[in-house]
Every structure is written in C-alpha cells, then in structure tokens.
Amino acid sequence: MNQHIPQQTDIVAAHQRIKPYIVKTPVLRSDFLDELCGAELFFKCENLQKIGAFKARGGLNAALSLPKEKLSKGICTHSSGNHAQAIALAAKLLNTKAYIVMPKNAPEIKINGVKELGAELIFCEPNLEARENGVKEIIEKYGAEFIHPFDNYDVIAGQATASKELMEEQVDLDCIFAPVGGGGLLSGTGLSAKYFGKKVQVYAGEPEGAADAILSFKSKKIEKAPYINTIADGLLTNLSDKTLEIILDTVIDIFTVSDEEILAALKLIYDRLKIIIEPSCAVPFAALLKNKAAFQNKKIGIILSGGNVDLAKLKF
Amino acid sequence: MNQHIPQQTDIVAAHQRIKPYIVKTPVLRSDFLDELCGAELFFKCENLQKIGAFKARGGLNAALSLPKEKLSKGICTHSSGNHAQAIALAAKLLNTKAYIVMPKNAPEIKINGVKELGAELIFCEPNLEARENGVKEIIEKYGAEFIHPFDNYDVIAGQATASKELMEEQVDLDCIFAPVGGGGLLSGTGLSAKYFGKKVQVYAGEPEGAADAILSFKSKKIEKAPYINTIADGLLTNLSDKTLEIILDTVIDIFTVSDEEILAALKLIYDRLKIIIEPSCAVPFAALLKNKAAFQNKKIGIILSGGNVDLAKLKF
C-alpha cells in the first residue's frame, strides 16, 4: 500500500493496473448546455463506468495493489454505496471475499448492487462510529484488509485516472469541476490536473446540506458540516487528513449549491445528455451553472461521478 | 436526390458528408445484461446523438445532398418528433428554413426540441392524411423541399451510417437488432450489414400495437397494422415501398413485443446502462430478450434509436 501522496508515476501505474477491468468512459457534449453556460463543456461520464460510478477505479487500484497473501483473506470497507460496489466488484474479479458494512438507510439500488456482486453485507446505524466499529469487527474476525473509501493513497490514485483520461482525450481544458464528499475524487482530480494538465484549474461543487469541505478548505483543518440535509447521498462524509492536504495544494475553490440547484442541474443533464446520474453527480454542474459568469468562454471538464439512483424516488 | 437503392459507395459518401455534424456515438456494454441474455451485447447509443436520435443522420444527409438553389427555399417534413428535430437541425446548420408539420399529440419534449432549433411548426390532426396535406400546403406556398422521414434513399443512406459505425468499432458481430416503424433505420441497417458486415444478420423489433411491418414482411406488400395502441410513439407509421423492398432483401426476421415487454426492457436499460431511452428505443432489446434462446453466445449489436421522452410521464 502506497504511504505517500501519489506521484505522477503512481497515477500512471494505477491506470495501467486497472485498465483491463474498467470502461474508458465516453465524454459527452451538448450544444444547448454550452450555450446556456457560455462555455465549452466536456462531460466525463463515470456514471457509465463499471458499477455505475468512478469508485470502480479507486477500489480496483487499491485491491490490485495488495500483496497476494493479504488479498486472499478478503477485503472490507464501509460505504453508503458506490465504494461498497467497487470493493465487491474488485473481490469478484480477483477471486477473493468482500465484507461490506453499509448504513441501513443506503439506497436500495446500491444495496442490491453489492448483493448481486456476491459480497457479504453487514448493516449498521447510519453514522461514522457504527460504520467504523462494524469494520473493526470484520478485521478481527477474518483478517480482511480494510480499504477506506477515500483516506487511502491507492484509492486516490485510482480516482485520479478519470480526469487523466479526460485530459488525454481533451487536451486543451482550462478547468475541471468535480464533486466533493470525502475528497477521494477531488484530490485525485487535483493531482491529475497538476501532473497531466496544461495549467488546468480544479474546482469543486459541494451540497449546502453537507458543507464540511468548504469549511475545511478555509480553515485548513478537518471540519464537520454545520448540518446534514441533502439529496446528494453520496457526498455526506467529511474530508480526511490525506484528502484535505492534497485538496489544499491542488484545488482553486469550492462552491456550495442547494438541493434545488442540484435538482435543476440533474434535470438538465437528463434532458440534454440523455444519461442517468444520481443527485450527487449533478453537484459540480450545479456549481458551474451558479457561477457561470466567472467561466465564460472556458473549456471545462465536468466529472459526472455516478448513476446509481432509484428512479422511482426521483420527482421530475 | 438519390433515385436508386443506396449502394455501398452511397453510404460511405453519406457518412463522409454528415461526419462533421454528428456525434460518433459510444457503444456501451453491461456484464449483467450479457449474463441475462447469454450473449455479448453491444449497444450503439443513438440516444446520445445530436437531437437525441439517429434521425439526425438521415435528415442531415438528405439536406446536404440537395442542390444549393433547392436548399435555399427551405426544407419541410411531417413527423411525430425525431425526424422533425433532425430537419430543424439540418436547416439551422445549413442556414435555411425548416417547416415542420407535426401531429398535435406529439410528445412535448419533441415539440420543444423543434421550436428551440428555430423551425416553423404547423400542427395537424394525428393521421397520415392530415400530415401529407399539411406538407402539400407548405410546398405550394414556399417551394420548400420535402424530406420524407423514411421513404427517401438519402435518408436511408444516412440512417445506415449508425450500424456502419457500430460494425467498424465491433468487427465480429453475428447480428444486429434494430427497431422498425417506417423502416428507414431498419432498411439502412440491412444495407450496411450487407455491404460492411461479415455475415451480419439483421433482425427487427416491432410493437404488437403497431404491427404492420411483420405483416408486410410476410405478404411482401404494404399492410396496415391491425390496430394502433402502443407506448412506442416513434414506431407508429407503416413501411413504404422503398423501405419494404430493402427490408425484404436484407432482414432475417421481425419479432413483435408487447408494451409490457417494452417497458421491462426499457427499465433494464435505464438501470444497467444508466442512459435515457424513449420507449420505441427499447423495442429491439425487448425483442432479443423475448427470443434470447435463439441467440445464445452470439455477438449482438443493438441500435438504441433515441432518448426523447417526457420523463415525468414514465412510470418506473
């Protein structure tokens, strides 16, 4: 396991390592959305990734980086959904066992995704303490290797490959927008922009109802959100020491958006790009829409993070 | 305007002609759907095409094939939706005027799409006679060039480029499934398979509630559907002489599916591919699901035709 902030070579190696297992996701465009924003937009569709989210990249890279004797005892994690599916997929592909501690209020589509991949599910109360205790028990019982959803340099290096791919396909981007929850994707995006971009500036979108990252970004230490209440169920966690350090070094700014703004952005993406995204995934585009005046005529990459949503529960 | 059945060179020329304006749409895959069908599936995502449907290909090819003096008087058509948007887009791109006769019960999202592209809309009763009379008036008044949605060899050659692209990306397909309404896409698919495929067999899906093509396919003459009642609003029209002739020459079989089967296929695609398709677009996949026993271990291309659907009206 990597013990230092991923270097350029680590991200290149991660990409090589996971390439046989992941999808090179398409980059979609829309004349209508370009006109609406006064910019050129390039949507990197990680909702079309294996397990329907970018998390496949980080989970696979972390699992593939383990020594065989560790891998054979299984891997485990706690997650509200997409990282859980990523670890379950990695275990299935690498012929080992996955143990997943999931908050009992996780979306059904994400629970089913984990079950379907053959992982063992352990439900817990929906708070960080219960999640961490659940994992502790698994480690004691089975000796399984814990793969944290974001506070893990191999996971971060894996997530970084999404924007690496985007910049390889679209070499002249001015900036990239990504969502921020625990910060795995955002810190990976920041590193890739730094290593592979030509002066690419990275911005983040965060829900107002889980606004810890913006506070941590300002105070330069881990803060909690003042309150948790948002439709963006994938972005509820706080930053970690590892992700905050990288974000402070590589990210220009974080913009917060309301649930109303998230839903408006989500609807635009459904209508114009004809793809299904989960609410968390609409957050960076919502952030751009709100601040579009500052980004006129720019070439902007937007990482669409995932598409695991119970459609019956969304109101159009 | 082309007066003969498109030859290989016509389809190659059509592809060159429209390439600057269209999207090379992605081909998506799903392990889950492969397992479900016992086959390898390659979904060609024309719902991610400009205007959200393959119709952009045919409309653009027909408009681009017109002499300049004809084009300058404008182009016109009648259509329940996607072809209308294609003609509106072609007129916008080529700086001419589009006149669109649309049945007044066309889906709102398709009406709005046409309006947004700056075309002039003329509403009519939802039957073929009213549509044809509407177009006649436009031609008399403005001298605009009529581009039929499917009974037009340039349109057929344009639609053929979708499966040409698919076979270029995936060279070892055994068969391709396409939907059939008027037969423009299906006849184009049949021609491309014949010219560019290595023994690729073409099959069609048709709604039970608009089942004219299967009758025409059997009797070898244009038949009407016994009744019209289906959620697949893009597949209500009959075949034409031009499309039937090509279909009889190039298509192996046509399978009908119920609305229930269409909706089940649609839901699977939403859940597994994370893309938005309109009900008509789910028809070929529904046809494959229903007949999967005959297609075990095959490599199957499926043309996903369009994504223009009022999501608020779909029940999940």
From TrEMBL, chains A, B:
Its cofactor is pyridoxal 5'-phosphate. Keywords: Pyridoxal phosphate. InterPro entries: TrpB-like_PALP, TrpB-like_PALP_sf. It holds the Pfam family PALP. Residues 19-306 form the Tryptophan synthase beta chain-like PALP domain. CDD domains: Thr-dehyd. This is Threonine/serine dehydratase. It comes from Lacihabitans lacunae. The lineage of its organism: Bacteria, Pseudomonadati, Bacteroidota, Cytophagia, Cytophagales.
